[in-house]
TrEMBL record:
A single MF term (Gene Ontology): DNA binding
Highest taxon listed in the record's lineage: Bacteria
Keywords from the named record: DNA-binding, Repressor, Transcription, Transcription regulation
Domain named HTH tetR-type: residues: 18-78
Name of the featured protein: TetR/AcrR family transcriptional regulator
PROSITE patterns the record matches: HTH_TETR_2
Organism of provenance: Cryobacterium arcticum
InterPro entries named in the record: BetI_C, Homeodomain-like_sf, HTH_TetR, Tet_transcr_reg_TetR-rel_C_sf
Residue spans binding DNA: 41-60
Length: 205
């Protein structure tokens, strides 16, 4: 007989499993950010969370599946600052700048993760290659749409091409992250991005 008490047990078990998966993903994020995907091992991630490799593989069947989960977690965090469900606009650009600032001050491991994995993933054989190709295409499209809206609203300076502005913003972001990782005291990534964007706009960020 299923009672209300027994009916609640799966929920508790699910919550415990979800919490454990989250711990594994957080550990995977740190390990992949430090060592890259190729050098980061399941064994090392399992040790971080105090599990056996077999126990970890109960939650993620292989390293590629774990990587997919890590990248999804990273993207979920980004949506807290950039509302991808809203129409692209100047708020999109402001959100990206806030995200850059948040990453630098609160989760620097995400900056490392992006730089290490995106460099590795330039190889077509890398398991995250297709992910990064799709991600860059999507980010370019989303930022271009934001700059197009800004042009229509009179918020983009005369002569600025939305697609070029979007590509420049992506290139600026990637370059700043590498420079910042080499010397974290040398620059403020968010402020440098604002400095890049100000001449392109007719309004304040």
């Amino acid at each position: 007989m299923i009672t209300s008490e027994t009916a609640r047990k799966p929920r508790g078990a699910y919550a415990k499993t979800a919490g454990r998966r989250r711990e594994i993903l957080e550990a995977g994020m740190d390990v992949f950010a430090t060592n890259g995907f190729r050098s980061g091992s399941i064994r090392e991630i399992a040790e971080v969370v105090g599990m056996s490799q077999a126990g970890l593989l109960h939650h993620f069947s292989n390293k590629n599946e774990l990587l997919a989960g890590v990248l999804e977690l990273r993207d979920d965090r980004a949506t807290e600052y950039v509302d991808t469900s809203a129409p692209a606009s100047i708020e999109t650009i402001r959100g990206f700048v806030r995200l850059i600032d948040y990453n630098a001050h609160q989760v620097p491991g995400l900056v490392e993760l992006h730089c290490v994995l995106s460099a590795e993933a330039t190889s077509p054989e890398h398991p995250a290659h297709d992910y990064f190709v799709r991600r860059y295409d999507w980010v370019l499209s989303f930022l271009t749409a934001a700059f197009e809206t800004m042009r229509a609203d009179g918020q983009l300076a005369a002569g600025i091409d939305p697609a070029s502005a979007a590509r420049g913003m992506i290139a600026m972001s990637d370059g700043l992250q590498v420079q910042w990782l080499l010397n974290r005291d040398a620059l403020d990534m968010a402020e440098e991005m604002r400095n890049y964007l100000r001449p392109l706009l007719t309004v304040e960020l």
